[in-house]
Amino acid sequence: MTAILLSWCLISTWVNRVVSTSGQYVTDLDNRGWIQDINHWSSTVNRLETALFWNPLDVDLLMRLARLYRWRAFDQRLSPKLARESHRLAIRYVKAACRRRPSWGLTWAILAGVKTAAGHIDEEMILALDRAILLGPWERQVQHQVVLVGIQTWHRLPKDTQHLVIETVDKALKDSRLSRIVIETAIRNSWQAPLQPLLQNNQRLERLFKSIEAEYRSGH
Q: Between 192-199 and 159-173, two packed helices, what is the crossing angle to 10 degrees?
């Protein structure tokens, strides 16, 4: 019994270390925007999948794997077959996270994002988007994902979901970190008409919009 407990303690310690180090790696990857070293990516995924074998209910492990496979799919976008497989794995892991922690808005936001990136603009994606907004309306990461997905898929969304997206965009514009992302996403997706009423009577946002629009027009 003592040996079993000691072994389990060692495994738990190792799993916690994997969670910690992989979290920093995913954060660095999000900030950089691409996979710099595929060997580092592969070794991180292998450690996470091993940790998940020992602790299959750990939502953080599931979310780490979903986000890593999402980045891998983006990295493989010139090879559709490989990208589809990475998207499939990302969706599988994030759906498992949604089942394990259904009240966490970020899991639903990531599911909506992964499905959108995979081209699956279906009822499940819309439901995930709705749940993300309702469960995490003030979480910056949720708002970020909702802004990207909501604007990209705007014309495929039902009116009720469009209304929820507008409310989230309005909140995100009040965040100095997100306001530029909102405006850039809107301009990139020709979403200026729904955005303009949210900028009125706010000189900071109107100046930011004009500045970013000028950058896009000049091709910078």
A: 50
